[in-house]
Specification:
Length: about 375
């Protein structure tokens, strides 16, 4: 049997570079397990923090060590020069790119799960795991995502979208925006950059002064900012797998002691626990599974997604929080654990995702010349 050459694309320019390396290590291990060994040959591609793609020995070393490649200082200064002059792009394509039969991009955050890489892979005309440009872009931008969810009739918290220019450049507009937020959403509310992940730049605010500072802070991360009414709720997550006939996993819960599920809680060992399955009534589990599939279809996701919910136990309400089209994929991440508890092992999951990528791919039809 000829093996499929799988381009494992990891690292990337986002703040989630290290998480991507952990996810890629777990996937590489799964590809070297059981039946997968006979089906796939791994071609690893590492995207450095400055955006440069590397093939060959370096990605193998990064996978083996689990540590990012450190860039010499001169590289960083060169990058700044090139960024300002637009004269020298960091992006170049290693020749091995042409050898890939199917891609597994395991990149989190901006430039990885926002449709940019997906656009490039689409242009390469090679199948790839996960959502395409539209699903990825809608899943990344919290404002666009919420608009699509609203259109699909999915219940969610009240929110308001704000632009950086409204916060920074107009001293007459800014107090009015704060007044509107206080009136329509009240305190506590959450201020979030629309296009980040891992809770970076997110603040929970309880007063006018905190609101003003948090808006200013969020604007330093993104042009687009979302403000949401805060809810007191349990946090439940559901994994989705498939293309047009996708399936929902059992439901898991994230528990923690901190004020909210912030960056430190997410990435410090022992600060948060995953409870699988979540101890909630069956009707809630079912409702979440249905909503997860609706959300998956609403943004046009494909392959995989993790859909996150707020369960307001006091009222019995379930609100959708967000969809993640490239969720964390380490051996201890919620997405693969939910499938493991639903009867799909990690190596099987990786295999199914690659098969789904191949199934979904439709080659470009070349127009006949007259
Ligand atoms: N409207 C809200 N009400 C209550 N908690 C919230 C709200 N929005 C976010 N949070 C808290 O902040 C965390 C991160 O927010 P989220 O929108 O999921 O951002 P990210 O995409 O970075 O994960 C959530 O898991 C939750 O703990
Ligand atoms: Mg989240």
């Amino acid at each position: 049997m000829t093996k499929l050459r799988l381009g494992l694309l990891f690292g990337g320019c986002s703040g989630e570079h290290e998480v991507s390396i952990s996810s890629a290590r777990a996937i590489a291990k799964a590809l070297n397990t059981g039946e997968n060994t006979n089906k796939y040959e791994i071609l690893p591609f590492y995207i450095q923090k400055d955006g440069r793609w590397l093939a060959g020995d370096v990605p193998q070393q990064v996978l083996a060590s689990g540590k990012p490649l450190s860039l010499p200082n001169s590289e960083t200064s060169n990058q700044l020069v090139s960024a300002s002059s637009h004269s020298l792009s960091r992006w170049q394509s290693p020749s091995q790119v042409g050898e890939v039969d199917v891609w597994f991009p395991i990149l989190h955050g901006p430039n990885g799960e926002d449709g940019t890489i997906q656009g490039l892979l689409t242009l390469m005309q090679v199948p790839f795991v996960g959502s395409g440009v539209l699903g990825s872009a809608l899943g990344m931008d919290k404002i666009a995502m919420k608009m699509v969810f609203a259109q699909a009739g999915l219940p969610q918290v009240k929110y308001k979208a704000v632009n950086r220019s409204q916060i920074w450049s107009n001293p007459c507009v800014f107090p009015k925006i704060c007044d509107e937020i206080e009136l329509s959403l009240g305190y506590p509310c959450f201020i979030k950059p629309a296009n980040l992940g891992s809770s970076v730049g997110i603040t929970k605010v309880r007063s006018r002064q905190e609101l003003e500072t948090a808006l200013d802070n969020a604007a330093s991360y993104d042009r687009r900012i979302i403000v949401e009414a805060g809810v007191v709720a349990r946090e439940l997550e559901c994994a989705v797998l498939g293309n047009d006939q996708a399936k929902a996993s059992i439901v898991g819960e994230i528990t923690y002691k901190s004020d909210f599920y912030d960056y430190e809680t997410k990435y410090t060992e022992g600060k948060a626990d995953l409870v699988i399955p979540a101890a909630v009534p069956n009707a809630i589990t079912q409702q979440i599974q249905e909503m997860a599939l609706q959300a998956f279809a609403a943004v046009d996701a494909a392959g995989l997604a993790r859909v996150d919910f707020f369960y307001v136990e006091a009222t019995g309400e379930v609100l959708i929080n967000e969809i993640n089209t490239l969720p964390g994929f380490t051996a201890t991440s919620m997405y693969p654990l939910l499938w493991q508890h639903s009867g799909v092992s990690f190596p099987e999951l990786v295999d199914q995702l690659i098969q789904l990528a191949v199934e979904r791919y439709s080659p470009v039809e070349v127009a006949e010349s007259e």
